[in-house]
Amino acid sequence: MTEATSLAAAAGSPDPNVGLRAVIALRRLAERLEAIQVDNARAQGWSWQQIADSLEVSRQAVHQKHNRRGRAR
């Protein structure tokens, strides 16, 4: 997790340009990781409700976000 560790350190930078760019990169990394794990859960037969419970969001939110993404692939 060198990339994540480096990004986390950069997010704490006193330079706003460095810190904000790191925040954007961390947000993108988190989105990619979420997509990978949602795909993994669906492949293992998890329901949208189970995924939503794990992510602490509503079933509708996770379904709308990831079902739409799944069709775009």
Structure commentary:
The protein has 73 residues and is mainly α. It has one domain. Helix content is 82%, strand content 0%. The chain is elongated, with a radius of gyration of 15 Å. It starts with a helix and ends with a helix. The model has no long low-confidence stretch (mean pLDDT 91).
Number of helical segments with 4 or more residues: 4
Strand content: under 5%
Q: Look at the helices and sheets and give the structural class.
A: mainly alpha
Q: What is the strand tally?
A: 0
Largest sheet: none
Along the chain, the helix and strand elements come as: HHHH
Low-confidence stretches: none
Whole-number tally of structural domains: 1
- Helix content range of the residues, please? over 70%
Task: Indicate the topology.
Layout: H1 2-11, H2 16-43, H3 48-55, H4 59-72
Entry summary:
The protein has 73 residues and is mostly helical.
List keywords for this structure.
73 residues; mainly alpha; 4 helices
